[in-house]
Amino acid sequence: MIKPKANYELFHGENVPMPASKKISLKKSVGQNLFARESGLPPVVEILRGLAAIPSPSGYTGEIVSHISKIAEKAGINATKTNKGGLLIGNHPFPEIVVSGHIDTLGAMVSGINSNGSLAFTKIGGPILATFEGAYVTVLTTEEKAFRGTLLLSNPASHVNKEVATTERKPENMQIRLDAEAVSKEEVLKLGIQVGDFIFFDPKFEYVNTGFIKSHFLDDKAGSSVMIDAFLTLGSNLLKKMPVVFFFSNFEEVGHGACGGLPTSAKEMLVVDMGVVGERVEGDELSVSICVKDSSGPYDYDIRRALAKLAKELKLPYKLDVFPFYASDGSAALQAGNDLRVALIGPGVSASHGMERTHVKALEATKSLVIAYLKHIFKMR
Ligand SMILES: [Zn+2]
Q1: Ligand 1 centroid vs 102 CA: distance in angstroms?
Q2: 43-52 vs 62-74: helix axis angle to the nearest 10?
Q3: Which domains does the chain carry?
Q4: Which of 38, 144, 187, 252 is catalytic?
Q5: How remote is the CA of residue 146 from the centroid of ligand 1, in Å?
Q6: Three-state secondary-structure class, residue 140
Q7: In this predicted model, what pLDDT tens digit does every residue of 26-40 receive, in sequence order?
Q8: In which band, very low, low, confident or very high, does the pLDDT at 381 lie, cut at 50, 70 and 90?
Q9: Model's pTM, two decimal places?
């Protein structure tokens, strides 16, 4: 497996802030007064910070899968990779409920090298390029060399281009400006960069002492961190008795994440993915959303009623919601022909697929609801 981390860190010296990196202290890089002390982070936020530091666009998820496997194994919980590279975590041989999130994210890939030495790219999933413009990126070659760069408009200087403000932000009008002394296609090829190299956007992770978490790719690293916190809280022994498995799919953002890889014993799927926040929806960043319907249709009526009842009893901040332009791994699993009852919950995430934000209260409410639902269904305490 390729391990880009060593190379990746070459570009983050002491003076370069990269708050998601495990090696750089939050307070040192972004100011002591505004941000939580590293040692005092709530567990779910610490887990999320670890996930945010590992790039994982669809198609490049090996490193983050290993990271989650190690967390599970250290806690005495079995981790099994699916053929497609997803991850199943649990200790019961015949799991009936699958708690499912996705560890793949949006991203980009080199699609060509321009004559001026900049890189053309194709999107992976649906990042909103206007909000990623100016992002610092890492380009990883197949030989494991990493280069830094910036996502910019083509011809981006306002002193030579009168259309900079009005040009549509789409791949055809944009480029990666490479931080290398290479100003021709030939020179870039000599660096070892070629079509198919992954482009990782810096996540810009910040945990603010008001409880807000700002980062790219909270969809679905927020949900994934909730799931990790949940299986660690349930623990190895309870998971031996509880027929549940935690599934981390790795191709959700491109539509086929949970189409395969589910255990044949599964009867139900509880998807943990981001709750929608915006105009004409109910969700917010402080609550767990319980999705009643999305673009793929209604979710299971009985399960969502049970979830809402539990949330109410536990006084969790929750919202029943319809997501207008949304599909999930639950939809993928059903469309692939799986015979499952499917429900969907998740922390409210604002500005989805852009500069996202959620709150620790939403993460903790989602975790509490996952655990409460499992204990309720299996009548365990
Ligand atoms: Zn998602």
Answers
A1: 7
A2: 150
A3: 41-105+217-377 (3.40.630.10), 107-201 (2.40.30.40)
A4: 252
A5: 27
A6: strand
A7: 333 333 323 344 547
A8: low
A9: 0.90
